[in-house]
UniProtKB/TrEMBL annotation:
Annotated keywords: DNA-binding, Transcription, Transcription regulation
Entry-linked Pfam families: GntR, UTRA
Lineage: superkingdom: Bacteria
Designated name of the protein: GntR family transcriptional regulator
């Protein structure tokens, strides 16, 4: 297979008459080739110097194109090695109640889980307060999983659900079932609203072991989901590594337009 440099040399045509800036032409071309599968994951990107010489353009213009591709997640920079085509990102809108399995399937990825624990516990005072449990009923279903996309660990997730809402749920095989699907189909419980907060952290040794990654920054995500204004269905906290997850917030005319989470499937 020819290198990206060879492909540029043979096929890329710079349109100097176009109103589209040069850096944007380069950005759009690389993006299109990745989408078409011509440029593939881990292919070495043409260097800034090579682009400057090949197209006879300034380094500033080339750097603009590279920066735009990096921000879009099309390329990734590896210190001491260069720039490479990155793996596809997994994105979801966090303005909607989030279902990992459905989201991954919709994006063409194969979701799976490793169940670390599936058990009935007695809530401590803190958890009981979060779930709004009465003194006389502190039983909680705890489900702890490693969530995967295409067999790659993405999230370490622990969920807590009041047991009185879903008796015998601990008998379900959650390695092959979606929690939200089970709650809706078996127990007729549907999330109406949810609150989510995101905290930046440094991954601990246990976190890196479970997520199969080196020590790095990460995100600690808390979510409380409600059946109605007064009834908590679920409290979940999850950990994801920072190089797999970014959060996007777009604004237009002072109004929130879109807020989303982007997961990366590339591992270096």
């Amino acid at each position: 297979m020819p290198s990206i440099y060879d492909h540029f040399k043979q096929h890329f045509v710079l349109n100097l008459q176009s109103e589209l800036p040069i850096y944007r032409q380069i950005e759009n071309y690389v993006t299109a080739q990745v989408r078409l599968g011509t440029f593939q994951e881990n292919d070495k990107m043409i260097s800034e110097n090579e682009l400057c010489d090949l197209l006879n353009i300034s380094r500033t213009t080339v750097r603009q194109a590279m920066d735009a591709l990096y921000k879009k997640g099309i390329v990734q920079k590896i210190r001491g090695k260069g720039t490479f085509i990155a793996s596809e990102k997994i994105q979801r809108n966090i303005n909607q109640v989030y279902n990992f399995s459905e989201s991954m399937t919709a994006l063409g990825h194969q979701p799976s889980s490793i169940v670390l624990s599936s058990e009935i516990i007695t809530a401590d005072e803190e958890l009981a307060e979060i779930l709004k449990l009465p003194e006389f009923n502190r039983k909680v279903f705890k489900l702890e999983r490693i969530r995967k996309a295409d067999d790659m660990p993405m999230i370490w997730e622990t969920s807590y659900i009041p047991y009185y809402l879903c008796p015998s749920i601990e008998t379900v095989d959650f390695e092959h079932r979606s929690l939200y699907n089970v709650l809706e189909k078996i127990f007729q419980l549907e999330v109406k609203t949810a609150n989510e907060t995101i905290e930046a952290i440094v991954l601990t040794e246990e976190m890196t072991r479970l997520l199969e990654c080196p020590q790095m920054a990460g995100f600690f995500i808390h979510r409380t989901a409600y059946l109605d204004e007064h009834t908590v269905l679920e409290y979940t906290h999850s950990i994801t590594r920072a190089d797999k997850c970014t959060f996007q917030l777009n604004w237009q005319n002072g109004k929130q337009e879109e807020m989303g989470r982007v997961y990366r499937t590339d591992v270096e």
